[in-house]
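Before the break, one more example. Copy the sequence into your notebook; we will annotate it together after we see the structure.
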Amino acid sequence: MHLTDLLATLPPALRDYVRELETRATALEMQTATLEMQTSALQARNQFLEDQFRLAQLKRFAPSSEKFGTQGCLFNEAERDVATLGQDAEEEADKGPKSVGKKRGRKPLPAHLPRQRVEHDLPESEKVCRCCQGALHRMGEDISEQLDIVPATVQVLQHIRFKYACRQCDRHGESSQIITSPMPPQPMPGSIASPATVATILTAKYADGLPMYRLHEVLLRGEVDVARTTLSQWVIKSGVLFAPLYQAMRRVLLACPVIHGDETTVQVLKEDGRRTQNQSYMWVYRTALDSEHPVVLFEYRPGRGHEHPERYQELASYIAIQHRDPPLS
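Here is what the structure looks like once it is written out:
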């Protein structure tokens, strides 16, 4: 028998009670479903907060070599700059009379850059007047400029050394001497790196802050596979080449009556006798702002104690004794 037919046989009071129970059951089911959704949301939020707490603890208490670096605005940098710089421009415009004399619009391209003409002429069929069908003559030109950046050119230098011999000795002499034109002095004899290549790598690493693996990837985009160890060896050998220049600059620095010095932390991996988590310091010494020969030098030291600048000062007397020549001019 169907439930509806069964309810029809019940007394009216009992029938109303059954229907009330059905309504309560439906309401409880809806309430249960709502509570389950809220529970899932709270569990997800709780998991998120736990992950954030663990990450904060890791950043605060983990060894410095294992901390996560801040990526910053890695993906939305362009949008951020447009929004920020656009807002700054609007605020500058709202300042009123102070910015009246300020030039607006696009900055002109530097005058020292070379110019290459790219001419756009009308086709011969359009050099006819539409009114009288007469020939059009050129009356001037409109010039608009674009900034054109050509990627770095990678090429191979072939050093050709000519050989010479004496025909007279070849025919009548007991031996013939072969003379080969010498190679010009190279910063790294026997290396495949030209001076321009070494300069490019040093500029990218120390001026632009590119690590070795990124320099390796830049070369790979040009289908040039140079091992990272080779790039690192070029950098290390360059430091040896610059040693005389460093010593000359240090003599100039130590000859100054006033020297500014400061230190900042630096992390050194796989250093003998020290753990990775140990803090090391890069000391910087520089001449005064009004110095005739400005010099800025860096020196690595394992600590920040007073003995390090004292040792640097003691080195001044030693260098003054060893080098009686005047400082660089």
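Strands lie at 163-165, 178-180, 259-266, 280-287, 296-301. Residues 323-329 have pLDDT under 50 and may be disordered. Try to locate both features in your own notes.
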